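Entry type: protein chain
Record version: 2
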Amino acid sequence: MVTTDSLVRPFLEAAPAAVRPALESIGDLDRRLWSLVAEGRAAWPDLPLDPRVLVEFVARHLTAEMADAALDGLRPTDLYLACACAKGLPAAIAAFDRDYMREVDIALARMRVGDSRLKDVKQLVRQRLFVGGGTAGAPTSAGKISEYGGRGDLRRWVRSVAVRTCLNELRKGKREVLVDDDHLIAQHAISQDDPEVEYMKRTYANEFRAAFGEALGQLGPREQTLLRYHHVDGLNIDEIGAIYRVHRVTAFRWIEKAKEQLVKQTLDTLRARLKLPASELDSVLRMIRSQIHLSLVRHLGGPKDSVADDAIELDPSEIEEV
C-alpha cells in the first residue's frame, strides 16, 4: 500500500513504462528512495529540493538495461545537486559554480585553447549546462545538466561536457586539436545507436550481461583495476600512469588492450552460445562496444575491495619502454 508520504508512486510514474515492472518488484523501494534523498540533503542542506522532484529526476534516466539494478551505484550527492540545478535553483547553480566549474578549467587546460578564447568557451559550457539549445533568453531545450543520470562521477562528467563543447567550437573554425587524454574522451563520446544495434541490445540484453560479466571475470587483476580507475573512478591516463609509475602512453595502451580483450571474449562467448550467423557479428560487436562504459560502471562500481588492486605491488617486468 503506497502511503501519502511514499515516494514510490511519483518514482514509478516518472519511469519509462518498460522499466516499471522491475522497479515494482523491489521490496524496499520506498526506503531506498528516501535514503537517496537523505544522503543528498545531508550534502546540500541549503538547497530546498522537493523529494518527489529528485526521485522523478532519477526515474526519467532509467532504461530497461538498468532496471535490475536501478538504484545500485547511484551517486546521491551529485544527483541532488544536478537535479537542483536542472530546476534552476539559484543557490544550486551558485554551488555548482563554486565547487564544480573548476573541472572546466582542468579540461580546457589540456587543450590548446588560447587565452583570448578561454573565457568564451567557458561561457558556452556554462550555457550548455544550464540553458541548453537556443539562447539564454529563448532556450529551445533543457540544459545538459538535466541529462546527468548519476551513474558516474559528476566532476568527470562535467569535464567531458567541457571537452566536447570546446571540440565543437574548434571544428567550427576547422581547427581540430586534441591533446592528452581528452582525445580518449572524445573517442568514447556516446553516439546515437543505429536501429540494428538497438535491436541487438533489446534482443540479447540478458545474454550480453551474462557474457560480459564472465569475460570481465576472466581478466587479470591489473586489467580490472585499470578499467575501474578509468571508467568508474574517472582517472585520466596521466593519473593512472602516475599510480603505476609508467609513461602515460603505456597507461593508454594498457587500458585499450584490456578493453579489447574484454570485447573479444564477450563476442566469442555470445557467438558460441547464440550460434550467431556471420551476418550478425558486426552488429553484435558494435553493440558490445556501445555498452562497454555503462557495463563497466555497473560491474565495477561497487566496493573497491571487490577487485584486487595491483598498483602497489607492480612487477617491474610489466613496465614498458615507450
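Comment: The chain has three domains: 8-86, 100-187, 195-318.
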